[in-house]
Automatic annotation (TrEMBL):
<protein>
    <recommendedName>
        <fullName>DegV family protein</fullName>
    </recommendedName>
</protein>
<dbReference type="InterPro" id="IPR050270">
    <property type="entry name" value="DegV_domain_contain"/>
</dbReference>
<dbReference type="InterPro" id="IPR003797">
    <property type="entry name" value="DegV"/>
</dbReference>
<dbReference type="Pfam" id="PF02645">
    <property type="entry name" value="DegV"/>
</dbReference>
<dbReference type="GO" id="GO:0008289">
    <property type="term" value="F:lipid binding"/>
</dbReference>
<dbReference type="InterPro" id="IPR043168">
    <property type="entry name" value="DegV_C"/>
</dbReference>
<keyword id="KW-0446">Lipid-binding</keyword>
Amino acid sequence: MKIAIVTDSTAYIPKDVRDKLNIHMIPLSVVIGGETYEEEIDLNAEQFYEELKRKDRFPTSSQPPSGKFVALFESLAKDYDAIISIHLSSGISGTYQGAITAGTMVEGVKVYAYDSEISCMAQGFYAIEAAKMAAEGKSPEEIIARLDEMKASLRAYFMVDDLSNLQRGGRLTSAQAIIGSLLKVKPLLHFVDKVIVPFEKIRTRKKAMNRIAELIGEDASKGIPLQASIIHANREEDAKEWKAELEQLYPNVDFSISYFGPVIATHLGEGAMGLTWTIK
């Protein structure tokens, strides 16, 4: 059985990795100053942050139209028997539901939509693992079971410089945003039940990053090999420095660097930093 792996652009898997593993990508869009851009196609992360400096309007994001999903699935149906379509959390976007709906509209191929319940490279971990398993000839059921297994061990924590973007975009309640801004805290955030909620309230950026380092240390100390990714919003040098620090602390963890691209950065804002990890 030939299985195609699809994910959306918010996994932020580099194009060379997608090409190597034969991962198909469907883009979400951002609207800046009345102009609509498909992220990772019309607009990359670097261009997005430059655009933000030139525009005085708050950017918004949108999920792929159903027609995009249908067209991609119909194209894949010519060469594949099944499609596993892995998407950002259904608690913050309708993209996953869009994949389900499109799957019922396409003939000749079975579509397995998978809710990562998260986003960014944490979501990317699922797509990469699924692609490797598909190349090994595993069945859709085996791949889905492995993704569920990964979900049990996957962790992700992130912090933002300013809570107003999350609040304005409807991804964090007004009360939580007001509390954070009044106290000048750098709350650690994570996903619970598919939505973004505070994990702990911490006073400074450095203390927040140190706390995340402690959290991965709790898992790394168990001696289980981990893969981890530092995720940054236009703070590449900070990410590189943090990676060097973490590699010294936890040599048994395989660290990489990823980024918050346009759609997710629309809600987190520039300067956000996060870390995700799972068992290899």
